[in-house]
């Protein structure tokens, strides 16, 4: 919420959608893990005829749907903000920031979900949030990445998102659930 208020006060509608995608979509994505831990749903999953793989893939589908919903809502909010402020949306900057948000989201979920599936939300919540962001920050610093450099690599980075999620889903589907 703080990030959204900062962006609105900064009056830059180009940054609303990516900020929502990076800040809000991962929170939406992990919500089923929070609920599963609170309600001890692993007991229910054990007695239902639903394979572990289906539950895992459903979590990934929920995450992607949450990202797309957040981007859609954010695009509407950005358009309203731009109209209210009388400033244009810059398409190329918005597309670049959305692509980078997608990659950051995919890396975040790709690292976080296998940890959440294996250990549960209660045991891994802080590490599962900090580790993906730390990996991205180290990559940006070590590779000396800048906005123009990232624009050049944007198609490859965007294509890497589904690859990261698929590899993570394959790994997570093979992991056992959290132990009591």
Automatic annotation (TrEMBL):
Keywords: Membrane, Transmembrane, Transmembrane helix. Pfam families: ABC2_membrane_5 (PF13346). The chain crosses the membrane at residues 60-82, 94-115, 121-141, 153-173. InterPro entries: ABC2_memb-like. It comes from the Bacteria. This is Uncharacterized protein. It comes from Actinacidiphila cocklensis.
């Amino acid at each position: 919420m703080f990030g959204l208020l900062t962006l609105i006060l900064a009056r830059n509608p180009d940054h609303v959608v990516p900020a929502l995608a990076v800040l809000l979509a991962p929170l939406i994505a992990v919500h089923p893990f929070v609920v599963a831990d609170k309600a001890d749903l692993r007991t229910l999953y054990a007695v239902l005829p639903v394979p572990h793989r289906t539950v895992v893939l459903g979590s990934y589908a929920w995450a992607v749907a949450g990202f797309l919903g957040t981007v859609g809502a954010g695009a509407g909010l950005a358009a309203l903000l731009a109209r209210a402020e009388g400033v244009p949306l810059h398409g190329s900057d918005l597309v670049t920031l959305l692509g980078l948000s997608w990659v950051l989201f995919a890396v975040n979920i790709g690292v976080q979900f296998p940890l959440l599936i294996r250990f549960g939300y209660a045991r891994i919540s802080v590490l599962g949030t900090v580790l993906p962001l730390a990996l991205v920050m180290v990559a940006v610093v070590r590779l000396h990445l800048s906005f123009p450099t990232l624009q050049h690599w944007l198609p490859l980075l965007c294509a890497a998102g589904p690859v990261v999620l698929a590899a993570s889903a394959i790994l997570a589907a093979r992991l056992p659930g959290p132990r009591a």
